[in-house]
Amino acid sequence: EAGVAQSPRYKIIEKRQSVAFWCNPISGHATLYWYQQILGQGPKLLIQFQNNGVVDDSQLPKDRFSAERLKGVDSTLKIQPAKLEDSAVYLCASSPGTGEEQYFGPGTRLTVT
Amino acid sequence: AQSVAQPEDQVNVAEGNPLTVKCTYSVSGNPYLFWYVQYPNRGLQFLLKYITGDNLVKGSYGFEAEFNKSQTSFHLKKPSALVSDSALYFCAVRDYRYGQNFVFGPGTRLSVLP
Lengths: 113, 114
Prior knowledge:
Chain A is mostly beta strands. Chain A is 0% helix and 49% strand. The mean pLDDT of chain A is 93. In chain B, strands 2, 5, 6, 10, 11 and 12 form a six-stranded mixed sheet that branches. A four-stranded antiparallel sheet of chain B has the order 3-9-8-7, with no helix packed on it. Chain B has a two-stranded antiparallel sheet with strand order 1-4. The mean pLDDT of chain B is 92. At the A-B interface, strand 5 and strand 10 of A face strand 5, strand 6, strand 10 and strand 11 of B.
């Protein structure tokens, strides 16, 4: 079974630029999560989708972050404009349903200079 | 609000000795509890979970965890540590009620010394 795919693996941008991350979950997984993991901290949930609907985006900085999951399969997370404090690893995860164990992708390491 | 504490930033243990990585939690309702492991430059991997039932949960790679409701704890254990167990371990919790999000602890770095 193929795992969760993410791209790119690394990205370096200047502040105020925009960036987009892509995630393809495990086939058949209805729930998709985006997390932000700052160095030395645990992952922080940004947004959770159930199929193509948003279940929770309470911690998503909506003035600069957006995410979509069209057709209920793959998803993109965008930051526009980026700030220095957005430097982190962005993790995508999927699970068969809510409340179940999550399967994580390798992450995208973002550096904002 | 949900929260997770991992009181130890670092745990060192000799190979072959038992290991314990501690986790305590706070939720309003009944908890779903999880342990994940993160190896360098890799994503998090699921180890085990507690949803309901037996308080002792067995998971991957010989790990187990004990749910203690009165102490609101979910400590990760292994009877005999391996050098390859050295990694970053995260405890996570979510309230069983639909729509509640997952909260991860800050992580504990486990070093198993040969």
